[in-house]
Amino acid sequence: MSNRDWVLAPLAPLNLRPADEVMRLERLGSLHACRLSFVRSLMRQMGRQRWQISRVRFDLDENGYGTAVYRLQTPYGRYHGVMFAQALDDERRSDRVIADAWDVTFGLVEGDVDDSLLEQMAANVPLQEAGRQHPRVLVLSRANKSLRNFAHFVEALGNGQQPDPQWLTRVGYLYRTTAVYGNGKFGLADFARLHENPDFRRPFSVQMAGVYLLRHFSIEQVEHLARSQSPETACGLAIELRRYLGIGNSTGLGMAPFLINHPQLIAQWVTQRETALALAQRQAPSEEERARLIALTKRAQQHLAETVTEDAEQRERNVATVAALPDVLSWLESVPLEENLWAQLVAWSERTLSLEAQELINTLLIELYPEQVDPLEEQMGVNENLDLEPDMPLMRLRQLIETHYGWALSHDYTSDEGAYWFWYRSAEKEEPRLGVRDEEPGAEKEVPIAMGPRVAHSHAAICEFLEDTPRAKVVDFLLAKPRHKEIIRRVQTLVKATYGDIHANLWHREMKPMHLLRTKLAFFGASRFDPKSDRWVRITLFQGAPLVEELNAEPEDLSHFDDWSFPLQPQLEKGCVAPAGLSPQGDQYPQGERSPLQQSSFQQQRTAKGGVSL
Amino acid sequence: MKVSFNELQGLCRKAFTGIGFEDGDAADAADMVAWMQCHGFNAIDQLNRGLDFLLEEDPESLPKVIYQDGDLAVLDGHGQSVLRSISLATELGFAKARARGLSVVKIRRCHNRQLIMGYLSRLAGRGINITAFWRNAQEPLTEQVVGFRAGRSTPEVRIYSVRDVPEENEPNDGITLVMANHVELLPSLGVDHDLDLLARHSESDLMACRERSLQEGIEVNDAIWARLKTLAHRILVESSEASRGGAGAGVNDND
Questions:
Q1: For residue B27, which residues of chain A lie inside 8 Å, CB to CB?
Q2: What's the CA gap between A368 and A391, in Å, rounded?
Q3: How far apart are alpha carbons A406 and A556 in whole angstroms?
Q4: What CA–CA distance (Å, rounded) separates B154 from B163?
Q5: According to the model, what pLDDT value does residue A99 have?
Q6: Cα A597 to chain center, whole Å?
Q7: ipTM of this predicted complex?
Q8: Does the beta carbon of A151 lie under 8 angstroms from any beta carbon of chain B?
Q9: Which of A62, A111, A178, B190 is deepest in the core (most CB within 10 A)?
């Protein structure tokens, strides 16, 4: 690239992929967590701003039941995570939203927690949806134990031994949340209240902070139990295993309506990710960056190979991705280091790889350029308002629909296949569900989240209206046909934010709801995507993430602090836990890639303590 | 009980859908009620008083344009609540003002008129100056004037008592909207006006009220909340074995 090109590069328009490509449901359902995902952004922010987490209360009995409170101090504010752990009969333990009791319930509070607030929370937080929450509570959540992991961890630590890391490879957590509520639910603080809050103004960052505190509590609780049961022999959890411990989440169709009902927000998320990809592609790579991408690819390859899922389809996808990556590595190692190498790589992967492997390569490319990409995390929020343009000529609207919503007009919504599903809300805790039209009751109460048929219906009505009044404006049409108001203002808004609508017929028999779930979960930062059916899934958050004590150590080297994607299983050798190594087919990591977090001095110091008693 | 803004907006939207509002109208109506309530205008009480009427309204009886030219429009609201689809009358005024610089829209025969402020807030946010006024024909005769600056979502509001009641004082259940691209139309009271100021809500007062609502929650009556929940329940489908299938883990999930 010439000097002139370098100067002009920042001004050159980015060639983002077209919405018809990016917003295909199958592609969205192939996304991986990336460095713009919310857990990654939050950890960077916590490290960069030196957030401090301290335990201010830990009143747990010998069974681990009781109350724990953690203080989260940022440069701008103070928050408290309040945990309530209680006994739960096995038969009441359920991943379903309709459950009414949990192993642990918790809230994240803005400001201090005095006795009065703690009392109010103790009376309401364990009730979850059935309680009324204080307006200073920002996040409300609950979680159940992974009983097998919990029992194994307590037993092993009680015996002075480290638990087998394979337990965490199979199920990457001790606790699994089933809902993480924010934005005003059940009396919680509105998200609007956080718009001016520098700590949590990004979407879902406060929910992720709550989950991060639960991760820390799960470590402290399991160590407390081991000590309580075997005070003479108990040891603490090794650092590598602590890092390898995430928090699970079990989720279902509830994710789907959010994607449809917040199209401007989704457009914003996808736009930032696509912008990151375009920025990465225009970088001329160095040999170091090529080596870094090779190392990241090997790490991802092993992570996916280690990922356990009983779902046959997802297992096949993982296997196919793992199988494809040696070709990617060969390609990377053999091609000349040309300026447009990354664009070549993306084009090559589109021709030869599965969607999931393509998006993995895109994710890893984004990883290479933090200076270019990370500022985009500040653009993940948006003011949502679907506004009408009443003075737009109706003919112009028709043209816009035909230009941008060809996908919606191309489906047959009258066939049995094309109108197979209907979406509705169940009376059971208002869970979103799918029903088979003409077979199951409730179609008359359908929740209209399938935008394709609505756009097609409005388009047909517009065409008919234009036959008599070709010079009509949008408002003229709507005064005659007001029921089209919602879809028209959505279309008028989203032709300016083209990543807002998912290009799929959500009624179609072949539609996979799992793709919708994965879209949102990828932006959260989920790993170990483990579908349990075509409409509910378990994932893991924060697996591999830096620990509270590492955060409190005020990391100097944020690049290593941030490098925890695609975590690998640590090695248990002679009773001690060592960092993960690459499997034989993965060769060796280049220097600096052997294990995330392993390099910086504070981390080396803490790694050395792994396996010793607290 | 204390509720959040989002919670109030969400429940109202479901309740309006349960009543039978179209999706767009349900969303707009919920926005209007939540906006009014968090700015301190007791919209929930107004909604509660109007709910029986809303339940009886004919959803096919739409606002009708009686007269219009480039600058002016007169619509018949058919005695319905502004919550149902009167937003389109305001959009008509917006379109005319954008095209001509200034527009006047008169909406005759409509109820719950004060709630229209919530929708006007959105229009003003899109860059138009707005004044809306209406008279209440009870004793004493009062007049409410609401003015938004273009680009601002919070208005100045004045409520006056009209001393000299006109001899021909027919029941007045309409709204007059004046919109202008470049001219501010805020309410003011000159010394010569024969009016008594009953209430004044400044832009800053209303913004502070909104801020308090977000900080402390919004107080609503338990019985009204329960009634809205009952209406919202109409959109839910009772569970069946089929509906539970695939919706998550079984009852027991011990792993």
A1: 486
A2: 46
A3: 51
A4: 28
A5: 86
A6: 21
A7: 0.94
A8: no
A9: A178
